[in-house]
Structures are given as structure tokens and as C-alpha cells.
Amino acid sequence: MTTEPTNLARLSMSLPAELFHQLDMMVEERGLPSRSQLISELIRHALAEHEALTRPEDMLAGTITLVYRGNRGRVRQQLSETQTDYLKEVISSQHVFLEDDQSLEVLLVQGPATRLKELCDALRSIRGVQQLQLVTTTALLPPLHELEGGEDAGAYAGTRSGGAL
Questions:
Q1: 94: domain range?
Q2: What is the CA 118 to chain-centroid distance, rounded?
Q3: Total number of domains constituting the chain
Q4: Assign residue 149 a region: left if phi > 0, alpha if psi is -120 to 50, beta otherwise?
Q5: String of DSSP letters for 57-78
Q6: For a 10 Å CB count at each end of the chain, is N or C smaller?
């Protein structure tokens, strides 16, 4: 008799021996309790990426991680202006200075997949941006504000309609 919860499904797969060995090493290095946990994480990431490509109007939340050179002046100004152009999608940002005149910036974002892709493309086009990665999830931020009567005011961050908040 099995003791597995009913909301789990079994998956059996065959892998080349070297790939299987690398998978086990990754599980061990991350300190995970099982291969299943790692494979579930990898599948969730692949599904979120797939959704962003196949359902461009779906709402996604995530982070954009940037590494750029040039801590003063033009680069930071252009990054700031671009984020302002996408004010509905950029929820917050965190900036730290790195070595050798480099900076690391992480943006918390939410919006339609197409808008997040446009934002990434706009940021990539700024001279000085060396690395950029978008990581998304289909889970969204909870409603930020409610109107009287319980109606959502823009419901979710990134879905607000025009005007100041």
C-alpha cells in the first residue's frame, strides 16, 4: 500500500548515465532531499518560460537582474528613464555597487509577458548593460488596494490603469 498523497503523480524517465550523475550531484550540492524536488523546480521554471512565449498577454511576476558598467551619469540615467517608461510593470528595484565600476540591479516586475519582454529589450539596448536575465513565475502579487465595496482597484500590481496612484 502506498503512502503518497493523492495529489502527486509518478513520472518514470530514462536519462543518459552522465546526465543522471550530474542530476544527482546537483541534488547533493543544493542539499535537496530528493531528485523529485529538483526536477519539479526545473519543470516549473520551464513552464513559466514557455508560458511567457506562448501566452504573451498573460500576467507574470518575476525579477530582472542586470549587471552594468558605469556607475555614474549616462548609464544610470538611461536605466532610470527606461524604468519610468515601464512604471506600471516595475514594482521595485535594488541596486548595489560592485567592483571595477560595475553595478548589480534587481527589478521586481509584474505585467503582461509582452510588456516584460519589451522592458528587457529596452534595458538590453542601453550601452553599458553587460548581463540581463528575466526570471518569471505565473504566481502574482496579491491585490495592493481595494475600493469601497470590496472592488479591486487595479487588482494586481502592474495592471493599474492610467493615472497617478
A1: 59-137
A2: 14
A3: 2
A4: left
A5: TSEEEEEEEEEEE--STHHHHH
A6: N
Can you tell me the distance from the alpha carbon of 11 to that of 78, in angstroms, rounded to the nearest whole number? 48
The x, y and z cell numbers of residue 116, run together, are: 516584460
CB 38 within 8 A of CB 32: yes
In the chain, the largest separation of any two C-alpha atoms, in whole Å, equals: 67
For 14-58, write each residue's pLDDT tens digit.
999 999 999 999 999 999 999 999 999 888 888 877 877 788 788
Residue 25 lies in a domain: yes
48 Cβ contact list (under 8 Å, min separation 6):
60, 62, 136, 137, 138
User: Which tens digit of pLDDT belongs to each residue from 88-101?
Assistant: 999 999 999 999 89
Tell me how crowded residue 59 is: count the other CB atoms within 10 A of its CB.
Answer: 19
Half-sphere exposure of 69 (CA within 13 A, CB side): 4
Residue pair 59/109 in contact (Cβ under 8 Å)? The answer is: no
